[in-house]
Amino acid sequence: RLAKTLLARAMTVTTISRMPGVKHISWHELEKEGLPSGTTAVVNLAGQNVLDPTRRWTAGFKQNVWNSRINTTAACARAIERATIKPSVFVNISGVSHYAPGAQKHTEASPVSQYDFMSRLCTEWERAATLSDNSICRIVRIRSGVVLGRDGGMIRSLILPFWFGLGGPVGDGRHDLPWIHLQDLCNLIRFAIEKPEVTGVLNGVAPQLATNADFTKAFASALFRPAFFPMPLFALNLVFVEERAVLLTNGAKVVPQRVLEYGFRYQYPDLAA
């Protein structure tokens, strides 16, 4: 979806993957040969899916989750530093696990803390996206909420149970769910690339504060299906292990203050959209 969004703006897109291809370079090529000639923007989205239900939460998988984010981000930063002609912007996508759950609303200026594995990961993830003080390349750090959209994100894993009328909230559904539509996240990345005044941290979340119950109701309504079957917390912890299940059960109140101040316009500002 991101490539399609950027191509629609007449941008040329080269992706980095494990294997090289016609419009791809490998991570090995990036380390050895650097950025493709003429690169004007670098966007890092790499990272192992934390909520992959087929993978047990072992020490090895946790290390893979860590390395797939930290190492790839550091590789992008090194490539930028080595480039003779620097790109104008480095956009790095991390998460909102920086912010502790609770009643307080968190803006981009809110203090962050390292209170669990995911918050420590997000801190180191952003630290890896650091360039030297004399670099002329802008750095934009987008802290993304849970990504919703028909083509991917959380929707893909939920559509079957909801379609068969087996969906429902997680636990009591009252916990916050900082979210963003996939297209809005792509548009925000494009916005960060195109607007030279945009820099620093952006909370990549929708303006609407929502709970898991709000999302469940809206999603079930869109599918014209009931949502009577809540998932007990113990069942979620059994599937994912509590250390990563917190991504679905313990969200913070996150607001996109700087995103709105920059004038970004959401295509999907609320769940009803």
UniProtKB/TrEMBL annotation:
Q: Which InterPro entries match?
A: DUF1731, Epimerase_deHydtase, NAD(P)-bd_dom_sf, SDR39U1
Species this chain originates from: Anopheles aquasalis (Malaria mosquito)
Q: What is this protein called?
A: Putative nucleoside-diphosphate sugar epimerase
- DUF1731 domain location: 231-272
The record, for Pfam families, names: DUF1731, Epimerase
Q: What sequence ranges are listed for the domain NAD-dependent epimerase/dehydratase? A: 38-197
**Would you say which domain of life the source belongs to?**
Eukaryota
